[in-house]
Structure formats: C-alpha cells, structure tokens
C-alpha cells in the first residue's frame, strides 16, 4: 500500500516527508500531533494549475456557489485523492487553516523545506545581515519554478509509518550571499512587482492571465473567470 501511495502522489506534484522531520525543526507549539514516522505529503500548485485545474473546475461548478475558486479547487482535487484510498485514514490540512490560538495549523514553507520541495530562505541564511531592526520574512524558492508556485496544503496518512524513508535536502538554488539579500529585499519590500519570483532562471512561470488574476483584489476576481454575482 505504501509503495502504491507514494507512486501515485509523486506523479501529481506532491513532495513526501515524515512528520518527525517537520516537528524536529519547530517549537512544540507548532508540532503536528502525529508520530514521527507518519507519512505526509506537501501539496504544491505549479504554474499550469491555473489552466489545467482551476479553469476546468470553475467551468464545471459554474452553477454552484463558489466563494473562493482556488481554495475550493484544491479541496476538490484533494478529495479525489482521498477517494483513491478508501481503506486508509487520510487527514488534510490546508494552508489557510488556523487554530483557535490564531496560529496556522501548519507552517507551509517549513514543511516544503524539510520535504525537499523548495528551499526556505530566511534571515539566518544571510551572514552579513543588513536590516538591523527591520522585520524580515522568509520565502521559499523552487529550483524549477522559482517563486512561481504555491504551497496549498498537507496530506497525512496516520496509519502509514515509513521508518526507513530517507530525507532529501532542498536544492539551494539561491546560493550566493548577494542573491539571498536581493531575494529577501525584493520579497519583503517590493513583493507586489513579483521580481523575487525570478531570482533564478525558471522553466515555467504564471501566464499573463494568471498574473492578472492574482494581482486583482479577491472580490473582483470572479469576473475574470466569467462568474456572475449569483455564482459568488
């Protein structure tokens, strides 16, 4: 069962990890309540998601109530994944879910890093810190897509234990001090222009239509997908 599961999910842009890898790098308040050897997958959406998943989903669900097209699309497809394993318990945590304490249910970028999916560049990765007292947020960069991707959720299989799974390190694709400073500067102070996404040479990026969609305020995105007020 474990081999079949890994084979299927690796084909559809999931990156696998053990819960213990994630918990080991975080404070207890952020730990996932599963045993260390529990199998999990980080869910990534790549640039082609917009055309291959989102637009077909919207067209199919056009007459139903759609409140958040992307979130509902991701939920729909993860539900289909769960259906592939009727004999397995499958838990899903979405990137937008929070606990009663207002903490996120999981730290998406940390999960992507420990799974080897994307490198999570943070302030501590810069030796000569130029920012002094400024708050600096980290950002994940994918070796193929740069910043043109998103982390959508975490898929967990509580009854599957993978004792001998070997951890893969994420690709350090922004390896120089100068580039890391440039990346964090662009992400923290100029994120609107999206330049940080191209900090490396990428193989695929968002289409102009997709860029326009995500640059539009959420309440106005429906018309870009051809949705009416009734659909909303």
UniProtKB/TrEMBL annotation:
The keyword NADP applies. It is found in: Cytoplasm. The gene is Mmachc. Belongs to the MMACHC family. GO terms for molecular function: cobalamin binding; cyanocobalamin reductase (cyanide-eliminating) (NADP+) activity; demethylase activity; FAD binding. InterPro entries: MMACHC. Pfam families: MMACHC. One of its GO terms (biological process) is cobalamin metabolic process. The keyword Oxidoreductase applies. The lineage of its organism: Eukaryota, Metazoa, Chordata, Craniata, Vertebrata. GO terms for cellular component: cytoplasm. It catalyses: 2 cob(II)alamin-[cyanocobalamin reductase] + 2 hydrogen cyanide + NADP(+) = 2 cyanocob(III)alamin + 2 apo-[cyanocobalamin reductase] + NADPH + H(+); apo-[alkylcobalamin reductase] + adenosylcob(III)alamin + glutathione = S-adenosylglutathione + cob(I)alamin-[alkylcobalamin reductase] + H(+); apo-[alkylcobalamin reductase] + methylcob(III)alamin + glutathione = S-methyl glutathione + cob(I)alamin-[alkylcobalamin reductase] + H(+); apo-[alkylcobalamin reductase] + an R-cob(III)alamin + glutathione = cob(I)alamin-[alkylcobalamin reductase] + an S-substituted glutathione + H(+). Keywords: Cobalamin, Cobalt, Cytoplasm, FAD, Flavoprotein, FMN, NADP, Oxidoreductase, Signal. Its EC number is 1.16.1.6, 2.5.1.151. Its cofactor is FAD; FMN. This is Cyanocobalamin reductase / alkylcobalamin dealkylase.
């Amino acid at each position: 069962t474990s081999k079949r599961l890994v084979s299927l999910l690796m084909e559809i842009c999931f990156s696998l990890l053990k819960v213990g890898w994630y918990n080991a790098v975080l404070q207890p308040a952020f730990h996932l309540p599963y045993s260390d050897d529990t199998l999990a997958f980080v869910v990534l959406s790549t640039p082609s998601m917009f055309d291959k998943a989102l637009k077909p989903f919207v067209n199919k669900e056009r007459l139903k109530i759609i409140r958040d097209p992307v979130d509902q699309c991701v939920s729909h497809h993860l539900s289909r994944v769960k259906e592939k394993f009727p004999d397995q318990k499958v838990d899903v945590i979405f990137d937008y879910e929070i606990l009663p304490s207002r903490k996120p249910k999981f730290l998406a970028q940390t999960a992507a890093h420990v799974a080897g999916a994307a490198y999570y560049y943070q302030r501590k990765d810069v030796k000569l810190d130029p920012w002094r007292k400024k708050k600096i947020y980290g950002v994940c960069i994918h070796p193929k897509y740069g910043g043109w991707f998103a982390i959508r959720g975490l898929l967990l299989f509580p009854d599957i234990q993978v004792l001998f799974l070997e951890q893969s390190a994420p690709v350090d694709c922004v390896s120089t001090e100068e580039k890391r400073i440039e990346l964090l500067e662009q992400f923290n102070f100029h994120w609107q222009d999206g330049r940080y996404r191209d900090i490396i040479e990428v193989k695929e990026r968002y289409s102009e239509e997709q860029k326009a969609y995500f640059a539009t305020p959420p309440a106005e995105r429906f018309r870009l997908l051809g949705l009416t007020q009734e659909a909303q």
